[in-house]
């Protein structure tokens, strides 16, 4: 019951806030969801070694017409190392070396064009999105080295960061909660291109957000 009351208070507060800009064509957005790893040539077995993670994003848009909206967002996604699938061991002299990478994350900006071909539908307005941007992929890698002779263990952590352009395609539905408050549910396919000419790292953010 408390959660329902809190949700009502939040929705009413948002509605009051957006009345001040009811005639404006500016729109603000905040959302979150899960991110699914799909494929990568840059990172070994990206889809098998990492489990689904989460995403957070927020942005601002401009409504040109009921059909077209241009937006820019700041996006963050993280996928987690899956210990059940990824572990590497190899022998080097008298040392046993264990390697893993425990997380990958990406953050950056995206400019998107949202197209709503049927803007007059009363419930569940479908839309499509196409976007371009730039993102930084971050990987935290850990290496453990155990000496068989003296039994010591050393852990070395490294962080790798790479910038690259991104492209995205998406689709979803917009639900009108009021004239100026909307719920968006969407799926976006994103591709990140590194500087080495590899095929893009691909991941799938699934998001729910509020637009006002």
From TrEMBL:
InterPro entries: Beta-barrel_OMP, OMP/PagP_B-barrel
Gene3D superfamilies according to UniProt: 2.40.160.20
Pfam families: OMP_b-brl
Domain Outer membrane protein beta-barrel: 8-194
Membrane-spanning parts: none
Record keyword Signal present: yes
Keyword annotations from UniProtKB, A to Z: Signal
Coiled coil: none
UniProt KW Nucleotidyltransferase keyword: no
Protein name as catalogued: Porin family protein
Organism: Fodinibius halophilus
């Amino acid at each position: 019951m408390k959660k329902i009351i809190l949700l009502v208070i939040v929705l009413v507060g948002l509605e009051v806030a957006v009345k001040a800009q009811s005639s404006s064509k500016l729109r603000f957005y905040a959302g979150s969801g899960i991110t699914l790893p799909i494929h990568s040539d840059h990172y070994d077995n990206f889809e098998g070694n990492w489990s689904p993670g989460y995403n957070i994003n927020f942005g601002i848009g401009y409504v040109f017409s009921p059909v077209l909206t241009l937006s820019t967002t700041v996006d963050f996604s993280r996928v987690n190392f899956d210990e059940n699938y990824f572990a590497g061991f190899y022998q080097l002299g008298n040392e046993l070396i264990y390697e893993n990478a425990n997380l990958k994350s990406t953050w950056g900006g995206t400019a998107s064009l949202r197209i709503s071909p049927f803007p007059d539908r009363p419930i569940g307005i479908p839309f499509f999105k196409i976007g371009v941007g730039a993102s930084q992929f971050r990987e935290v890698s850990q290496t453990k080295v155990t000496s068989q002779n003296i039994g010591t263990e050393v852990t070395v952590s490294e962080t790798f960061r790479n910038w690259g352009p991104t492209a995205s395609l998406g689709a979803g539905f917009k639900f009108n909660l009021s004239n100026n408050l909307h719920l968006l549910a969407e799926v976006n396919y994103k591709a990140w291109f590194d500087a080495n000419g590899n095929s893009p790292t691909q991941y799938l953010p699934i998001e729910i957000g509020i637009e006002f």
